[in-house]
Design a protein that fits this description.
Length: 290
Protein backbone atom coordinates (compact mmCIF):
# COMPACT_ATOMS: atom_id res chain seq x y z
CA UNK A 1 0.00 0.00 0.00
CA UNK A 2 1.38 3.40 -0.99
CA UNK A 3 1.65 6.21 1.54
CA UNK A 4 -1.04 8.24 -0.25
CA UNK A 5 -3.47 5.33 -0.29
CA UNK A 6 -2.80 4.67 3.39
CA UNK A 7 -3.44 8.30 4.38
CA UNK A 8 -6.54 8.50 2.17
CA UNK A 9 -7.94 5.32 3.70
CA UNK A 10 -7.11 6.60 7.19
CA UNK A 11 -8.96 9.87 6.57
CA UNK A 12 -12.00 8.09 5.08
CA UNK A 13 -12.04 5.65 7.98
CA UNK A 14 -11.92 8.38 10.62
CA UNK A 15 -14.74 10.29 8.95
CA UNK A 16 -16.98 7.21 8.78
CA UNK A 17 -15.92 6.14 12.27
CA UNK A 18 -17.48 9.30 13.69
CA UNK A 19 -20.88 8.15 12.39
CA UNK A 20 -20.41 4.65 13.81
CA UNK A 21 -19.53 6.25 17.12
CA UNK A 22 -22.66 8.43 17.10
CA UNK A 23 -24.93 5.42 16.49
CA UNK A 24 -23.08 3.50 19.21
CA UNK A 25 -23.44 6.37 21.72
CA UNK A 26 -27.22 6.10 21.54
CA UNK A 27 -26.97 2.34 21.95
CA UNK A 28 -24.61 2.55 24.93
CA UNK A 29 -26.69 5.33 26.55
CA UNK A 30 -29.78 3.11 26.50
CA UNK A 31 -27.84 0.15 27.83
CA UNK A 32 -26.13 2.21 30.52
CA UNK A 33 -29.42 3.43 32.01
CA UNK A 34 -31.94 0.67 31.22
CA UNK A 35 -29.58 -2.31 30.79
CA UNK A 36 -31.45 -3.09 27.56
CA UNK A 37 -29.58 -4.06 24.39
CA UNK A 38 -31.60 -2.29 21.71
CA UNK A 39 -31.70 -4.25 18.45
CA UNK A 40 -34.09 -1.64 17.03
CA UNK A 41 -31.43 1.10 16.99
CA UNK A 42 -30.63 0.52 13.31
CA UNK A 43 -34.32 0.65 12.37
CA UNK A 44 -34.69 3.95 14.24
CA UNK A 45 -31.70 5.25 12.31
CA UNK A 46 -33.44 4.21 9.10
CA UNK A 47 -36.54 6.22 10.07
CA UNK A 48 -34.33 9.27 10.59
CA UNK A 49 -32.96 8.79 7.08
CA UNK A 50 -36.47 8.67 5.65
CA UNK A 51 -37.47 11.84 7.50
CA UNK A 52 -34.55 13.63 5.85
CA UNK A 53 -35.18 12.00 2.46
CA UNK A 54 -38.87 12.98 2.32
CA UNK A 55 -38.21 16.44 3.75
CA UNK A 56 -35.76 17.02 0.89
CA UNK A 57 -37.86 15.32 -1.81
CA UNK A 58 -41.24 16.82 -0.95
CA UNK A 59 -40.29 20.21 0.52
CA UNK A 60 -36.75 20.81 -0.73
CA UNK A 61 -35.37 21.13 2.81
CA UNK A 62 -31.58 20.86 2.96
CA UNK A 63 -30.56 17.56 4.63
CA UNK A 64 -28.69 19.36 7.39
CA UNK A 65 -31.61 21.69 8.12
CA UNK A 66 -33.82 18.64 8.65
CA UNK A 67 -31.63 17.36 11.53
CA UNK A 68 -33.83 18.94 14.25
CA UNK A 69 -36.93 17.55 12.53
CA UNK A 70 -35.64 13.97 12.45
CA UNK A 71 -34.21 14.22 15.99
CA UNK A 72 -37.49 15.50 17.49
CA UNK A 73 -39.63 13.02 15.54
CA UNK A 74 -37.52 10.04 16.60
CA UNK A 75 -37.23 11.28 20.18
CA UNK A 76 -41.01 11.02 20.54
CA UNK A 77 -41.14 7.71 18.65
CA UNK A 78 -38.43 6.32 20.93
CA UNK A 79 -40.16 7.60 24.07
CA UNK A 80 -43.44 6.05 22.85
CA UNK A 81 -41.76 2.68 22.20
CA UNK A 82 -40.21 2.70 25.67
CA UNK A 83 -43.39 3.73 27.44
CA UNK A 84 -45.76 1.45 25.56
CA UNK A 85 -43.61 -1.69 25.22
CA UNK A 86 -40.23 -1.71 26.94
CA UNK A 87 -41.43 -0.28 30.26
CA UNK A 88 -43.32 -3.54 30.75
CA UNK A 89 -40.12 -5.52 30.09
CA UNK A 90 -37.71 -3.57 32.29
CA UNK A 91 -37.43 -6.37 34.85
CA UNK A 92 -37.80 -9.23 32.38
CA UNK A 93 -34.94 -11.65 31.64
CA UNK A 94 -32.35 -10.29 29.21
CA UNK A 95 -33.22 -12.74 26.44
CA UNK A 96 -36.85 -11.57 26.57
CA UNK A 97 -35.73 -7.95 26.20
CA UNK A 98 -33.54 -8.90 23.24
CA UNK A 99 -36.44 -10.64 21.53
CA UNK A 100 -38.75 -7.69 22.12
CA UNK A 101 -36.33 -5.15 20.63
CA UNK A 102 -35.70 -7.55 17.73
CA UNK A 103 -39.47 -7.73 17.20
CA UNK A 104 -39.70 -3.92 17.25
CA UNK A 105 -36.95 -3.77 14.63
CA UNK A 106 -38.81 -6.23 12.36
CA UNK A 107 -42.10 -4.32 12.76
CA UNK A 108 -40.48 -0.99 11.86
CA UNK A 109 -38.59 -2.44 8.89
CA UNK A 110 -41.64 -4.25 7.47
CA UNK A 111 -43.83 -1.20 8.00
CA UNK A 112 -41.26 0.82 6.03
CA UNK A 113 -41.29 -1.82 3.28
CA UNK A 114 -45.07 -1.54 3.00
CA UNK A 115 -45.05 2.26 3.00
CA UNK A 116 -42.01 3.00 0.85
CA UNK A 117 -41.13 -0.24 -1.01
CA UNK A 118 -37.67 -1.89 -0.91
CA UNK A 119 -36.26 0.49 -3.55
CA UNK A 120 -32.92 2.14 -2.82
CA UNK A 121 -33.28 5.91 -2.71
CA UNK A 122 -30.73 8.69 -2.61
CA UNK A 123 -30.62 12.46 -2.66
CA UNK A 124 -28.20 14.76 -4.43
CA UNK A 125 -27.34 18.23 -3.25
CA UNK A 126 -25.24 19.97 -5.88
CA UNK A 127 -23.04 21.88 -3.45
CA UNK A 128 -22.30 18.67 -1.54
CA UNK A 129 -20.94 16.70 -4.50
CA UNK A 130 -17.52 18.36 -4.37
CA UNK A 131 -14.36 17.03 -2.82
CA UNK A 132 -11.94 19.09 -0.75
CA UNK A 133 -8.39 18.37 -1.90
CA UNK A 134 -5.46 18.79 0.48
CA UNK A 135 -2.42 17.90 -1.55
CA UNK A 136 -3.09 14.46 -2.98
CA UNK A 137 -5.66 13.63 -0.29
CA UNK A 138 -9.35 14.07 -1.12
CA UNK A 139 -11.89 14.75 1.65
CA UNK A 140 -15.52 13.98 0.88
CA UNK A 141 -17.46 17.09 1.93
CA UNK A 142 -20.66 15.34 3.18
CA UNK A 143 -18.60 12.81 5.16
CA UNK A 144 -16.53 15.61 6.67
CA UNK A 145 -19.66 17.55 7.65
CA UNK A 146 -21.15 14.38 9.16
CA UNK A 147 -17.95 13.76 11.14
CA UNK A 148 -17.89 17.31 12.52
CA UNK A 149 -21.57 17.13 13.47
CA UNK A 150 -21.01 13.75 15.14
CA UNK A 151 -18.11 15.03 17.25
CA UNK A 152 -19.95 18.24 18.20
CA UNK A 153 -23.06 16.25 19.18
CA UNK A 154 -20.97 13.81 21.21
CA UNK A 155 -19.33 16.70 23.10
CA UNK A 156 -22.72 18.38 23.56
CA UNK A 157 -24.26 15.19 24.93
CA UNK A 158 -21.30 14.73 27.28
CA UNK A 159 -21.81 18.27 28.60
CA UNK A 160 -25.56 17.67 28.93
CA UNK A 161 -25.07 14.50 30.96
CA UNK A 162 -22.41 16.14 33.11
CA UNK A 163 -23.97 19.50 33.92
CA UNK A 164 -27.73 19.57 33.31
CA UNK A 165 -30.24 18.45 35.94
CA UNK A 166 -31.78 15.86 33.61
CA UNK A 167 -28.30 14.66 32.64
CA UNK A 168 -27.35 14.22 36.28
CA UNK A 169 -30.60 12.34 36.87
CA UNK A 170 -29.79 10.05 33.93
CA UNK A 171 -26.32 9.37 35.33
CA UNK A 172 -27.70 8.72 38.82
CA UNK A 173 -30.27 6.28 37.43
CA UNK A 174 -27.59 4.44 35.48
CA UNK A 175 -25.45 4.05 38.64
CA UNK A 176 -28.18 3.03 41.10
CA UNK A 177 -31.81 2.95 40.00
CA UNK A 178 -33.19 2.25 43.47
CA UNK A 179 -31.04 4.92 45.10
CA UNK A 180 -32.05 7.45 42.45
CA UNK A 181 -35.71 6.66 43.09
CA UNK A 182 -35.25 7.09 46.85
CA UNK A 183 -33.88 10.64 46.43
CA UNK A 184 -36.85 11.68 44.32
CA UNK A 185 -35.76 11.01 40.75
CA UNK A 186 -38.64 9.75 38.57
CA UNK A 187 -36.73 6.81 37.09
CA UNK A 188 -39.65 5.79 34.84
CA UNK A 189 -39.58 9.26 33.26
CA UNK A 190 -35.78 9.04 32.93
CA UNK A 191 -36.26 5.80 30.97
CA UNK A 192 -38.51 7.56 28.45
CA UNK A 193 -36.07 10.43 28.07
CA UNK A 194 -33.08 8.12 27.73
CA UNK A 195 -34.64 5.91 25.08
CA UNK A 196 -35.88 9.00 23.27
CA UNK A 197 -32.36 10.49 23.32
CA UNK A 198 -30.90 7.22 22.03
CA UNK A 199 -33.43 7.15 19.19
CA UNK A 200 -32.77 10.84 18.41
CA UNK A 201 -29.02 10.20 18.17
CA UNK A 202 -29.67 7.31 15.79
CA UNK A 203 -31.94 9.56 13.70
CA UNK A 204 -29.33 12.33 13.52
CA UNK A 205 -26.69 9.80 12.43
CA UNK A 206 -29.08 8.60 9.73
CA UNK A 207 -29.82 12.13 8.55
CA UNK A 208 -26.11 12.96 8.41
CA UNK A 209 -25.29 10.05 6.09
CA UNK A 210 -28.29 10.53 3.78
CA UNK A 211 -26.38 12.85 1.39
CA UNK A 212 -23.82 10.12 0.63
CA UNK A 213 -25.52 6.82 1.51
CA UNK A 214 -28.57 5.08 0.07
CA UNK A 215 -31.85 4.98 1.99
CA UNK A 216 -33.91 1.79 2.20
CA UNK A 217 -36.04 -0.04 4.81
CA UNK A 218 -33.23 -2.49 5.57
CA UNK A 219 -30.33 -0.04 5.68
CA UNK A 220 -30.32 -0.09 9.49
CA UNK A 221 -29.04 -3.68 9.46
CA UNK A 222 -25.86 -2.41 7.79
CA UNK A 223 -25.09 -0.22 10.79
CA UNK A 224 -26.56 -2.02 13.78
CA UNK A 225 -24.04 -4.88 13.65
CA UNK A 226 -21.15 -2.41 13.49
CA UNK A 227 -22.72 -0.42 16.33
CA UNK A 228 -22.79 -3.53 18.52
CA UNK A 229 -19.16 -4.26 17.66
CA UNK A 230 -18.25 -0.65 18.55
CA UNK A 231 -20.14 -0.76 21.86
CA UNK A 232 -18.60 -4.06 22.94
CA UNK A 233 -15.17 -2.97 21.74
CA UNK A 234 -15.29 0.26 23.76
CA UNK A 235 -16.94 -1.32 26.80
CA UNK A 236 -20.67 -1.73 27.35
CA UNK A 237 -22.18 1.46 28.74
CA UNK A 238 -18.98 3.50 28.24
CA UNK A 239 -19.53 6.83 26.48
CA UNK A 240 -15.91 7.55 25.54
CA UNK A 241 -15.41 3.92 24.52
CA UNK A 242 -18.20 4.24 21.94
CA UNK A 243 -16.45 7.15 20.22
CA UNK A 244 -13.00 5.54 20.27
CA UNK A 245 -14.43 2.18 19.20
CA UNK A 246 -16.26 3.85 16.30
CA UNK A 247 -13.06 5.48 15.06
CA UNK A 248 -11.15 2.19 15.34
CA UNK A 249 -13.79 0.26 13.40
CA UNK A 250 -14.06 3.00 10.76
CA UNK A 251 -10.30 3.00 10.17
CA UNK A 252 -10.11 -0.82 10.17
CA UNK A 253 -12.90 -1.01 7.61
CA UNK A 254 -11.30 1.62 5.35
CA UNK A 255 -7.85 0.03 5.48
CA UNK A 256 -9.39 -3.39 4.90
CA UNK A 257 -11.16 -2.04 1.82
CA UNK A 258 -7.85 -0.72 0.50
CA UNK A 259 -5.96 -4.01 0.77
CA UNK A 260 -8.66 -6.70 0.54
CA UNK A 261 -11.04 -7.42 -2.33
CA UNK A 262 -14.82 -6.93 -2.17
CA UNK A 263 -16.66 -7.61 1.05
CA UNK A 264 -13.54 -9.08 2.66
CA UNK A 265 -12.86 -5.58 3.99
CA UNK A 266 -15.12 -6.54 6.90
CA UNK A 267 -12.50 -9.12 7.88
CA UNK A 268 -10.16 -6.45 9.26
CA UNK A 269 -12.90 -5.13 11.51
CA UNK A 270 -13.54 -8.47 13.17
CA UNK A 271 -9.88 -9.45 13.39
CA UNK A 272 -9.18 -6.26 15.38
CA UNK A 273 -12.37 -6.78 17.39
CA UNK A 274 -11.42 -10.33 18.40
CA UNK A 275 -7.78 -9.40 19.05
CA UNK A 276 -8.71 -6.58 21.45
CA UNK A 277 -11.28 -8.68 23.29
CA UNK A 278 -8.72 -11.45 23.77
CA UNK A 279 -6.56 -8.91 25.62
CA UNK A 280 -9.39 -6.83 27.16
CA UNK A 281 -12.49 -9.04 27.52
CA UNK A 282 -14.56 -6.16 28.90
CA UNK A 283 -13.59 -3.82 26.06
CA UNK A 284 -11.01 -1.05 25.86
CA UNK A 285 -12.65 1.07 28.56
CA UNK A 286 -14.48 -1.64 30.46
CA UNK A 287 -13.70 -2.55 34.04
CA UNK A 288 -11.42 -5.38 35.08
CA UNK A 289 -12.74 -8.93 34.93
CA UNK A 290 -13.22 -10.28 38.45
Amino acid sequence: MSANLFIQSLVDGLLMGGIYGLVAIGLTLIFGVMKVINFAQGALMMLGMYVTYWAFTLMGINPYLSLPLSAIALFFIGAFIQRSVLSKMINAPEHNQLLVTLGIMLIIENLALVLWSPDLRSIKVEELTQTLNIGSIGINIPKFIAFVFAIVLAIGLFWFLKHSMIGKAIRATSVDRQGASLVGIATAKINYITFGLGAALAAVAGSLITPFFYTSPTVGATFILKAFVVVVLGGLGNFIGAIVGGLIIGVAEALGGAVLPGTLKELMTYIIFIAILLVKPNGLFGGKVR
